[in-house]
Batch of 3 targets.
Target 1
Amino acid sequence: MNIGIVLYPTYGGSGVVATELGKYLAKKGHEIHFITYSQPVRLGSFRENITYHEVTVSDYPLFDYEPYETVLASKMVDVAKHEQLDILHVHYAIPHASAAFMAREILKSQGITIPFVTTLHGTDITLVGKDPSFEPVITFCLNQSDAVTAVSESLKKDTYEHFSTDREIQVIPNFIPIEPLKPVDLSVRRRFALDEEPIFCHVSNFRKVKRVQDVLKVFGKVNEEVKSQLILAGDGPERYTLEQLCRELDLCDRVTFIGKVRDTQHVLELADLFMLPSETESFGLAALEAMALGVPVISSNTGGIPEVNIHGETGFLSDVGDIDDMAKNALFLLMDKEIHAKFKANAYKRAQEFDIERVVCEYERLYERLLK
C-alpha cells in the first residue's frame, strides 16, 4: 500500500507513535509518505520505502497567522495525486483531520477516492478539543472520517462524552518495539549514582499536565529514607519552576537534568523506578517505554495509565497529587530486592503485549477494510 501519514514531527507522543508506525510499515514493504512541516525527530537517516514531504507556509504580510491548515490540505492533495496514495492516516485531530477532509473532497472532485483515518492521541480531545472554539470542527471531522481510532479505552470514552459523534471508534493502543533485556552498563550508570543508590527517572515535555513538581517531591521523601538519584529527561515550560524547587528542597546534588533526548532508551535502562504522576494521560507511552526495559512504574491512576501499568504487578497507581502514597509505594519496591526483581519481570512481560509487531497488524487490517 501507498500510505500518507500526517503528524506533528516533534518529541510528543503522537509524533513518536506516528513516526514509528510509518517506519515499521515501510520495513514490511509499504510505501510511506510523511507529510508535515519538518522532518520527524524520530525518523533518523534515509530509509527504504520512506519519503518525507515538507509543508512550507509562505509568509505573506496579509496574514497575522500562517494558514498552515490550508497549505497542509494542498500538500496532501499534491502527494496523494502524484504518489498515487491509497490511504491517508492523520494523527492528532487538530488541524490534521479537517485538512484531511478538505483534501479528500478536493480529490473527490477530481475523480480520485482516498479514505482517511483519524487517530486520536489525547490532548486533541481531552484538553484542546474541549475548547468550545474547536468543538464543532472536531465533531464534524470525526463524523466525516472514514475510520477513527483512539489509543486507549479511556480516550475513547472521553471522546464520546465530549463530542456528539456516533462514529465507531476502534481502540488500537500505542506500541513500541520489544527487545531482549540486557545487563545495564555499570560504567554509564556510575556516572549518575553509586552502586547502592537507586535511580529514579522521569521523561516528559515538562508541561503542567505532567505534574513534574510531584516527581521531585516524591523523590525527596524517598531520598530521606534511601539515598537515591533522579534523572529528569526532557524540557518545557515547567523546567524553571522545577529547578527552583530543586534548590528549595536542597536536592540539586541528587538530581540531573539532561534535557531533551532523542532516544530515551539509554536513559530509561539505567533506572530502577520510573515516575509518571500526570494530571491526565491518554495512554502513558513513557511508562510503556520504561516497562519494556524492565523498569517498574510509580504513576497516577488517571486516563489510560491503568490500561498499561497494572497496580501491584508492574508498579503502583495512586490518586493524582497523592505524593505520600507514591513515596510509600516507591519505598516498598526499593526496600526488598526480591519484590523489585518480581516487578521488573512483570513490567517487561506486560510490555510485550504492546509489541509493535502485534499492534501494527491492527492498522494494516483497518487499511485493508477501508480499501475493499
Target 2
Amino acid sequence: MNLLFIGNLGGWEMVAVVFIILLLFGGKKIPELMRGLGAGIREFNNAKNSITNEIKEGMKDAERKSLENKE
C-alpha cells in the first residue's frame, strides 16, 4: 500500500477523511488513540536518542584509545 497519495489531498478530501475517522472510532476513542500514538512516538525518540548516545560514546572511546596508542 502506497501512502504517497496523502500529499495530493485537498481541503475537502481532508475534511472527508477526518469525518470518516470520527464515524469509525467515535469522539471518545480519538483522544485514547492520540495518547497511544504520542506514547509510541515518544518511545521511538527515546530509543533513537539512546542509540545516538551509544554511537557517540563508542566514537569517543575509539578516539581516546587511538590517542593513547600514539603516545
Target 3
Amino acid sequence: MNSTPKQLNNHDLCDGAVYPGVRYEKRPARTPDGKVVDGLYNAWIWLDNPTQFNSYTTDMVKGVILAFRAASNARDVNAVVFTGVGDKAFCTGGNTKEYAEYYAGHPQEYRQYMRLFNDMVSTILACDKPVICRVNGMRIGGGQEIGMACDFTVTQDLARYGQAGPKHGSAPIGGSTDFLPVIIGAERAMAACVLCEPFSAHEAYYMGMVTAIVPALKVDGKYIANPLVETTLATDEFGRITFGKPKTGESLAQGKALMAKGTVDLAALDEKIEELCAKLLMTFPDCTTKSLEELRKPKLDAWNRNKENSRAWLALNMMTEARSGFIAFNEGPKNDREIDFIALRKAIAAGAGWTEELHLSIQPKKA
C-alpha cells in the first residue's frame, strides 16, 4: 500500500476563506462516554445575525457555502453541526430587509442571488460528513428549507417551525416543496406550504421532521416541557391528535405564567448534539458517507429536478407579489405586516394589472 503523502493537497475552494456573517469552529470530538479524542473534531457552523433572527443576507449565503465546503473537506472532521447564534432563532430565512430594499423590483439581481441560495442548499446536501441541524429557536421559511437539507434535526422544544411563502408574496420552492412531501407526506406538506401556519417542535417531532427533542425552559432550576403546547399524546372529542398543539384558555394562561418564571437554557440541547456526534464517531466513515448519499437521494432527486425553474420563477415574482409582500413585511407596522389580500384578489378579478397604483393600494396602512 502507498505510504501517507508527505504533503496533503488542499481541496478547499480558496485558502484563508472568510465567512461573512457566519462563524466556523472545530470542537474536539468526544466518545460516547464523554472523553475528548485528540486530533478529531466536529465542525460547528453558526448563522451569526441574531438581531434579525439569523436571517441570511447575500454575504452570509456565501459564508455558509464556504464553511460547508471547508467542513466537508476537513479530514479530521467527524460531523457538522449547523445552527444559529442565540436562543430565539435557528434561521427565519432570507433577510427581508435586503429583499425589500434591494431585490424587490429587480428580478435579474434576485436571479443571481438565487443561484447563490441554490448553491447553499446543494452544498449542504453534498457534504461528505453527516450534517446535524441544531434548532436553537425558530426554523421558519428559508430557515426551514436549509434545515431540512440537513441529515438530522435536534431541537429544543420551545422552537417553532413553518413556512412563510404565500403569506408574504413567495412560494416555498427553495426546498420545502421538494423536501416536505418526502419527510412528512403530501397532505401535511400541502397544509404547511400553502397555509403557512407555524407549528411547534413537538408537532415537528410527531410528524417525523425531528430526530430528537429536548426541553429548554428551566423553572426553579429544573427543565420542564414547553408549557404553551400540549406535550402528552392525546386526542380531542373528534379523535384528532392534540400532541404539540397550542394550549387555550386557562391552560394557556398557566403556561404563560410558567414561561415568565423560567429561563431558557440550551445545555440539554448541546448535550444531545454531542451524544449524536459521538454515535456517528463510532461508525466506519466511508460507509457512513455512502449511507448518507443513498438516503439523501429522494430529497436530491426532487431538488435537482426543480431548482432551476424555481429560481427563474422566483426572480420574475420579484416584480409582482414578492415585491409587495416583502415591502409590506419590511415597512408595515409590527402588528400588520401583510398586504390586503381581499383588495388584491378583487383587483385581479376585475382585470387590474400589477401597476404601482395596485402595489401601493394593498400595502398595510401605517399608523
